[in-house]
């Protein structure tokens, strides 16, 4: 979307918009930078608190609470404080459960692939209801993806459940505090969640003619393929960055997906450079690294709907810096992420080339029937 353009239905009162079109590489939109960055900084505070405790005090949780808070910060990010708290509270136990499932399913390559296929398909199908629900679904799937990629022992499943949930609830509690402190902006226009409406949309789109249904199947298959590839290649440390790339770039529409692939590549390169330089400059200081990670989190939240390439740079900086803080060299982590991102891009492109939407893939640009 060109600079200056806005989508009037992107963040409507019910959060019912289903499309979020990324701006061009050198343009801004659809969200205005100022409010988005301020909101991002606010939502990043719970993540920063957890990081300061876990990294500054070198706790045994090793960033698990901060990761739960990070993931819970995305659902309802566009919403007023009280509504945002509701979305975060709803996402928290799901994030914890998927973290536990990720630990357990990672014990078997087949189990990991099947779990990712099912959860990924469900997350992708959430686009049938709303963009807000889709972002929630992606956050939950991301919890599974990260937990699988850590290759923890089965006994770590319960701690993963508890710590992931705690991080999500920390995020929700902070949003409630913001609301109690008087931040009621936008509440008057906010429409309450309707389970009946959501269920109606899910039933109506449960067919191959629906772009959202096809996306769910395609998305789950692509994520599962990413897991299978890194398991086959024995990429134990950063293989999960392959399906991570797919999770962030694939959208129901082919043109938007390929657009994001280009922005993802550019943003990853920028983030790898920034993260490596920061890791060398900070020298492993726990508090300094926690502050840098908090800043990267704030930028990731704030830039998600402003400039996708810069969002990718911020989230890449977070991932590589966190890996460095856990004892892995930043240069090695950067190289692994670059390689994994390239594979993830290839899988995402192949998914649409092998199974395009009706009317897409041959130069046609028909709008999907279920898109806003």
Describe the structure.
The protein has helices at residues 33-56, 64-72, 81-105, 109-125, 131-150, 157-180, 195-204, 211-232, 241-249, 254-282, 286-303, 308-325, 330-354. The protein has one domain (33-182, 205-354). 67% of the residues lie in helices and 0% in strands. Residues 1-14 and 362-372 have low confidence and may be disordered. With 372 residues, it is mainly α. The chain is globular, with a radius of gyration of 19 Å. The two termini are 15 Å apart.
Radius of gyration in whole Å, from Cα?
A: 19 Å
Question: What low-confidence regions span 5 or more consecutive residues with pLDDT below 50?
Answer: 1-14, 362-372
The gross shape turns out to be globular
The helix-and-strand class reads mainly alpha
Mean pLDDT: 88
Number of strands: 0
Sheet with the most strands, sense and barrel status: none
Order of SSEs, N→C? HHHHHHHHHHHHH
| Fraction of residues in H or I helices | 55-70%
Tally the structural domains.
1
For this structure, the quaternary state is: single chain
Distance between the termini: 15 Å
Strand content: under 5%
Number of helices: 13
């Amino acid at each position: 979307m060109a600079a200056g353009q806005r989508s009037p239905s992107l963040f409507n009162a019910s959060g019912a918009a289903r499309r979020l079109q990324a701006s061009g590489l050198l343009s801004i939109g659809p969200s205005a930078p100022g409010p988005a960055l301020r909101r991002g900084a606010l939502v990043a505070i719970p993540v920063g608190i957890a990081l300061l405790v876990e990294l500054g005090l070198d706790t045994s949780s090793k960033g698990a609470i901060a990761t739960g808070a990070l993931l819970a910060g995305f659902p309802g990010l566009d919403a007023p404080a009280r509504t945002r708290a509701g979305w975060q509270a709803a996402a928290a136990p799901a994030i914890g459960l998927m973290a536990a499932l990720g630990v357990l399913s990672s014990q078997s390559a087949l189990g990991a692939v099947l779990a990712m296929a099912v959860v990924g398909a469900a997350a992708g199908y959430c686009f049938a209801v709303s963009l807000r629900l889709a972002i929630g679904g992606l956050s939950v799937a991301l919890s599974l993806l990260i937990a699988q990629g850590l290759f923890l022992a089965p006994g770590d499943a319960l701690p993963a459940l508890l710590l992931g949930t705690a991080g999500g609830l920390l995020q929700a509690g902070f949003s409630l505090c913001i609301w109690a402190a008087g931040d009621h902006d936008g509440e008057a226009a906010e429409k309450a969640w309707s389970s009946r409406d959501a269920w109606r949309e899910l039933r109506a789109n449960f067919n191959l003619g629906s772009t959202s249904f096809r996306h769910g199947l395609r998305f789950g298959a692509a994520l599962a393929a990413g897991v299978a590839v890194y398991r086959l290649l024995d990429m134990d440390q950063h293989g999960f960055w392959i399906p991570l790339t797919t999770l962030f770039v694939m959208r129901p529409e082919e043109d938007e997906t390929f657009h994001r692939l280009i922005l993802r590549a550019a943003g990853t390169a920028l983030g790898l450079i920034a993260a490596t330089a920061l890791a060398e400059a900070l020298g492993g200081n726990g508090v300094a690294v926690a502050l840098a990670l908090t800043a990267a989190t704030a930028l990731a939240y704030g830039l998600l709907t402003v400039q996708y390439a810069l969002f990718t740079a911020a989230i890449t900086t977070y991932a590589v810096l966190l890996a460095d803080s856990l004892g892995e060299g930043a240069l090695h982590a950067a190289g692994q992420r670059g390689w994994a991102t390239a594979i993830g891009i290839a899988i995402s492109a192949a998914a649409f080339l092998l199974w395009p939407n009706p009317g897409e893939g041959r130069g046609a640009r028909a709008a999907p029937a279920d898109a806003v």
